[in-house]
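Class, look over these structure tokens:
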Amino acid sequence: MKYKLLVSLLMLTNIAAFAQYDSAIRYRMATPSFSDAADTLIKRAVAAHPNDTGEASEFNTFIKWKNYMSPRICNDVVVGGDLFAPMNSALNSYRLHYTDYCNSGTFNGSWKCIGPFNNEYGGEEQQGRIDAIWVNHRDTGCILVGANGGGLWKTNDGGLNWRNLTDASTGNGSSVLGMPGVKWIAVNPFDTNIIYIALGGRDDAKKTGSYSLGLAYTTDGGDHWFSDTAFNALTYSGGIATISKIAYMPGTQKLFAISGTKVLYKANPGATWQNISPSAFPPGSRWCFDMNFTKLSRGKVAVAFGPTSDTSYLGIYDTTSGGVWSYVPIKLTGYTQRNDHDGVVKFSISSQDTAYMWFAAVKDSTGADASLLLKSPLSSFSATIQNYAFSGGLYYKPFGPQLFQEVKGFEVSPGNSNVLYVVNYNGALGNSMYKSIDGGKTFPYGHSGHADGRCLVIDTASANDSGLYDVVYFGNDGGIRKKRAGNM
């Protein structure tokens, strides 16, 4: 019924966001053509707001709308005819036979888009941009996603129906209202009604810039939201600090977060936040880029610290020994790490506690940006990286200047450490997600859905040599795509 209602509304409104221009473009006239009329509107937008060049500007909205509508209209209808009649006919067919197209019991191909869907009829692109995903491993129909400009969304039926959790809090006494951007989601493994969300835009966003509204939480599944004032006070430094990641240690109620140069820890729901930033680093000296947990040796959290003086660090915090830090310096001969910019930008830890690290730097011989994949067991991590040689073994893969320069998500399959997935922004060759089945030596499989990838979650891992049956969720600027079977 909801599908029928939606399509019926689309048929009635068609291009409702541009209704004020309807008479100029809807019907076939001798002149102007649809393209000419659309170009006139674009020129008007530029003239009215010449300095507004952002992606969400009126100018770019019209461009997107024109590109979307152009192949969906019929320019050869008789004069006075409706240009949009063919699209309306297709929508009507979909309305009558939508179960043939969206039957949840079928899964055509390797990937399926499960929403929340972008609004192609106007508005800002952020409506479809997904920065964070959480999947309930006990009930994979339950999924939470964080939208760049649209709050926290939830589905209980695998994506057939979605509802916004943060917008619904308006007016009920919550201290967090409306639909801010949500860039990280952490759900208590023992009580899924306890949810923490990092509010704002991704700190590496290229289109809308970076902003932070701090940390918020709910204890009743999203009915009421509250600002975590204790956390926000600990991270405040002349402004609300960007939260680079927040996550529960698997199988526990221990909550960790990295924000700016600080590492914070909450031992259980009733505990207070602690600043556990390593004392070995001067306050404010190193940015925290990424954070993950050990799998084989339980109870440890690893944090990638940005470089100073051409050396970055991977720090390990052991909760089983009273909270002790150990550090591994990372430096590559022939590469220079820029402060607060390069180093290990993303990393993942395999089921056997092997670290796979995306390393960014400037190649000294060319002065060009470089992106390399490094590997080492955490148990025998060498003191430094020199001449591409770890004591525990290292291979590296330099990529072109575009392919993996802006990694947004990176995961090792829990079922097979030779299977790696990487998501990047502004993907080369139209792809924004890649898969390796040889431990990262090559990435022969690519997938897009949208050229701007944002996040990645592996829900179910396969021990198959190629990870053939890994269930993967991939967030991009067009919603979420899910892979249930197949290589890519």
